[in-house]
């Protein structure tokens, strides 16, 4: 499937079977300038630089701050709601302590957002909070993502068994 080794010019050479190439996205990064090591990442699914869907999880880049990502496994997601983007003027963070957005400078141009409702931890069903509606379970803060291509992300989520609903307003 993947063959790698040193070529005659002392460069890293990689050859990938064509059947795998159309499903994978290659990202090359040089690890250290004095060493000619190159890291190859193969990711199936979706990746727009800020939101990525892999085989095991969703990756929200720049979630807690610069260079800090949030990884959410598909099994931890209760449901995802496709809602109109009401956070167009917010590039990231949280304004109401209920929704948390990763940094996205292009959010103003996007019309749709995906709100992730996470499963609660065992024993957290009885917690009371002024920021929760009665009967709501799961963590109080809900991650929100605004991918460049929301339909592709929804297709990836459905393929991994995540329930996706469309709400006119959240």
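^ structure tokens above, recovered residues below v
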């Amino acid at each position: 499937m993947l063959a790698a080794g040193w070529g005659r010019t002392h460069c890293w050479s990689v050859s990938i079977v064509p059947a795998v190439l159309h499903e994978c996205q290659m990202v090359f990064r040089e690890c250290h300038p004095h060493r000619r090591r190159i890291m190859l990442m193969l990711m199936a699914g979706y990746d727009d630089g800020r939101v990525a869907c892999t085989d095991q999880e969703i990756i929200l880049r720049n979630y807690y701050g610069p260079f800090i990502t949030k990884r959410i496994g598909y099994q931890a997601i209760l449901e995802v709601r496709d809602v109109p983007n009401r956070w167009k003027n917010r590039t990231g963070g949280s304004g109401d302590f209920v929704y948390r957005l990763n940094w996205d400078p292009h959010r103003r141009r996007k019309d749709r957002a995906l709100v992730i409702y996470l499963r609660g931890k065992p024993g957290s069903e009885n917690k009371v909070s002024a920021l929760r509606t009665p009967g709501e379970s799961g963590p109080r803060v809900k991650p929100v993502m605004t991918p460049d291509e929301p339909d592709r992300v929804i297709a990836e989520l459905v393929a991994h068994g995540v329930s996706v609903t469309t709400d006119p307003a959240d």
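The first helix runs from residue 18 to 21.
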